[in-house]
Design a protein that fits this description.
The chain has helices at residues 14-26, 45-50, 71-82, 90-121, and strands spanning 6-10, 30-34, 58-61, 66-69. With 141 residues, the chain is of the alpha+beta class. The protein has a 4-stranded mixed sheet with strand order 2-1-3-4, covered by helices on one side.
């Protein structure tokens, strides 16, 4: 049995779900490797060869013998490769890419920050600090 062209490395995060949703909706076969942040798997030498930023998601396209990282770049690559969800009409294509870039440049980062402050910072006690206890803005305090 041959391997699928796409091998996805990801985790259960908002960015991590984007290529999964594309691949599932497009009916594209893929291999999946779950990246465990608690084990720092995204910082291993093997993973850093695929993505020097040490972040997910990352895909390895076996047919092209190359890795693609950053969710927007992955979605654009997959749309072009499989002819899905991206029109050949220049105007429609431009409009779709505008929304993709808006999502990765604005909505996505805000959702990521919300997740961080709700799930990670709250767990480490960041939420319990009052604004008056922050002294970096006024070193004399």
């Amino acid at each position: 049995m041959t391997q699928p062209d796409i091998h996805l490395y990801t985790a259960a995060t908002m960015n991590g779900y984007k290529p999964v949703l594309f691949l599932e909706e497009a009916g594209v076969p893929y291999d999946l490797t779950f990246i465990d942040f608690s084990k720092q798997e995204q910082k291993t030498p093997d993973f850093l060869k695929l993505n020097p930023n040490g972040k997910i998601p990352t895909i390895y396209d076996r047919a092209e013998d190359r890795a693609i990282f950053e969710s927007g770049a992955i979605l654009w690559h997959l749309a072009n490769k499989y002819g899905k969800f991206l029109s050949n009409d220049p105007v429609t294509r431009s409009e779709t890419l505008q929304w993709l870039f808006f999502q990765v440049g604005h909505v996505g980062p805000m959702m990521g920050q919300a997740m961080y402050f709700q799930r990670i910072a709250a767990r480490t006690g960041m939420r319990s600090r009052s604004r008056s206890s922050v002294t970096w803005m006024n070193p004399a305090a």
